[in-house]
Amino acid sequence: MMVEEINGRDGFLGRPIEYVLLDDQSKPDVARSLYEKLITVDKVDLIQGPYATAPILAAMGVAQRYGKIIIQSSMGIPKLQTYDMAFPATPFGPEPDKSYPNVILDAMATLSPAPKSMVVLTSKFPSAQFMAQGMRTEAEKRGVKVPLFLEYEAGNRDFGAIAARVKEANADFLWVGSLGLESNQILEALRKLDYRPKNSFHLYPAPGPLALSPDGNLVWSSTFLEPDEPFMSRPGMKRIAEHYKERATKANLPYPIIDAQAAGMAAQWQILEQGVNGAKSLEDKQIAAWLKKNVVTTVYGPTKFDGPYNHGAPAQLIRQVQNKEWKVVWPKDLAAPGVKLING
């Protein structure tokens, strides 16, 4: 999608971009080998980062060895991005384990009654575990008790025993460091025990399946934008959202609505295109130097790389499933028109 857009603008400095699909199988060693081949054998001009923290770290090591700029949109642990020519496309901020839990706690404080206890349940997947530990720390700092902090193996499918412990704790709020369909499985396991959390937050769920699930109504999740105002007024956002919906519908995706994951990939390409055009060069060091000195505009708004680990300010938001659609509900000034946070 973005390659077509950029080629429609005459590519990078007049050179068209070729789209070739390579599968890293979500395995760091495969990602490492692919990037090594791209740089040393295929001799590509520029690279883009893969998806997810572990493959990104593998690719970043290769990029650093050969002095290549690398832009990524899903590094969930910013402090691991130590390479000075690695740039984040998604505004996690340098310390999301501190900043984002407080966004959640601020929203919780507006509920009536405000939750006084929280169960923290998380996958051992590194980026989820990282955020879960931050959530526990920040909650306790603000007087929200955490009677149960429970981890499960990444890829776990049987949540029966875990659900029983969550039900027994019966906290006011459930925070889940989930990935993909884990949230659906956890909520289903809780329903089988005749237990529904009063309110629950889900870190990195599969957005479509959770929104459409019978258990998904009013759940919270992390986001950076949704296809509503004020986000749709950002440059290019309306066009990208419409193009995404058209493609996703043709591909028979059950939830063909753009969200933060897809938008992050769009932002990667927007950053690289502006870096190339701004530096008027395909040389990695010149592009990196230009990005560090300038503000770029992406679907996430004005973006700077002037903080620790090349991060700018955090801009993580809360969305909630309302009528089987995700809507930004917090902070209030970024909520969709006519939408507010609903207490479960």
Structure description:
This protein is α/β, with parallel strands linked by helices. It has 2 domains: 2-94 and 261-310, Response regulator (Rossmann fold, 3-Layer(aba) Sandwich), CATH 3.40.50; 97-228 and 317-334, Rossmann fold (3-Layer(aba) Sandwich). Helices cover 39% and strands 17% of the residues. It contains 11 helices and 11 strands. It has helices at residues 2-8, 28-40, 53-66, 96-109, 126-141, 160-169, 182-192, 207-212, 237-250, 260-279, 284-293; strands spanning 70-72, 86-88, 117-123, 145-152, 173-180, 200-205, 220-223, 296-298, 301-303, 317-322, 325-330. The longest helix is centred in the last third of the chain and has 20 residues, at 260-279. The radius of gyration is 20 Å and the shape is globular. The model has no long low-confidence stretch (mean pLDDT 96).
Spell out the key features of this protein.
2 domains, Rossmann fold, alpha/beta, 11 strands, 344 residues
The secondary structure category is alpha/beta
Low-confidence stretches: none
**Largest sheet, strands/sense/barrel:** 7 strands, mixed
The helix count comes to 11
Number of domains: 2
CATH topology of the largest domain: the name is Rossmann fold
Tell me the CATH superfamily of the largest domain: Response regulator
In the CATH hierarchy, what is the class of the largest domain? Alpha Beta
Any idea what the radius of gyration is?
Answer: 20 Å
Outline: globular
